[in-house]
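Submission checklist for the structure archive. All mandatory fields must be present; incomplete records are returned to the submitter.

[x] Identifier: Ethylmalonyl-CoA decarboxylase
[x] Organism: Helobdella robusta
[x] Residue count: 307
[x] Sequence attached
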Amino acid sequence: MASLRHALIRSFLIKRGPDETTKRLLTLSSALNSELRQKQIDLLSKYPGGCVDLEKNDKTGIAVLTLNNPTKKNALTGSMMIDFEKRVEDLESWEKGRGVIFKGSGNTFCSGADLNVARAVGEGKDSGHPSLMSSFMQNITSRFFNLPLITVALVEGAALGGGAELVTCCDFRVVSSSANIGFVQARMGLSPGWGGGVRLVNLLGRLKALQLLSSASIIKGFEAQEIGLADEIFGEFDDSLETATSFLTNYTKFAPDVIKAMKRVVINASRSDMQSVETLNTKETQIFQSLCGGLANLEALNKKSKF
Ligand SMILES: CC[C@@H](C(=O)O)C(=O)SCCNC(=O)CCNC(=O)[C@H](O)C(C)(C)COP(=O)(O)OP(=O)(O)OC[C@H]1O[C@@H](n2cnc3c(N)ncnc32)[C@H](O)[C@@H]1OP(=O)(O)O
């Protein structure tokens, strides 16, 4: 995909004046983007099930975003990925918003990609399906990460594979002591492909990220807190939503404009990081595409292992 893009761009650069070139490059880039988007939607909409719900409270400025696929421990189907994008779009323009709690239904966060989707995407390796799903999910999770709102992941039960990657796209993490967080991609013959590898290194540093990814170990709340992956822990008798709301309220006391300005200050200060994140994500997708649908991945899917 990238090499085709470069070849086309190079052909446009030849024998054209700078203004004409810029205009044509913009047109070309937008045509390529809409073609890519159509391919992503065509692929993901083939795998329906579950939904992503958004409840916004204009009075408090706090929204609750819920992954809702309880019979599969909130595994993400293709249509849920599309739904997720719509909810993020809604949050991007929420005037009265201050903060978001990101959670799963039924006391569990997310068991990763729906294994049926993971299999179908792997089997479509030759048509570039791993890269289509990866770039779609990286785009949404980056947009969520850069919302002008304070975001908290409420993590209980399982946060595995892609589910663990979603945990990293929030500003903060409030985690149950009994939660199971695992970047289990290696056990699946995969590497992270939803932007979670880049965010994990930024969050924990190179060494701890490498330890988590290469061991594929599953950690509980207190261990997550020890390494900096959890900001607050709650116990089995605590009301999880109440705990997350009370945590978030520490950061959402002021007017929406003020809160948004603070988040923008932080985003702006890391702008140089953000530009490189796009390039790094593209590389993450290439690495993911190289493993997805490979022997180790297909073997893991056939074993239907439970973690
Ligand atoms: C491409 C992205 C890739 C990545 O980057 O890593 C992925 O995310 S691949 C997916 C990685 N995740 C998994 O492989 C999770 C596998 N599931 C489990 O380990 C366990 O189910 C659990 C999440 C630890 C929960 O265990 P438990 O509480 O004992 O419940 P059950 O196992 O009985 O699960 C209930 C029900 O849910 C189905 N399920 C669970 N996860 C998925 C999933 N990711 N996709 C599809 N279905 C899932 C499970 O099969 C059970 O179904 P039934 O047997 O029909 O009741």
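[x] Structure attached
Curator remark: The chain has a mean pLDDT of 93. Residues 72-73, 75, 111-115, 118, 158, 160-162, 184-185, 188, 190, 192-193, 306-307 surround LP2KCY5N (CB under 6 Å).
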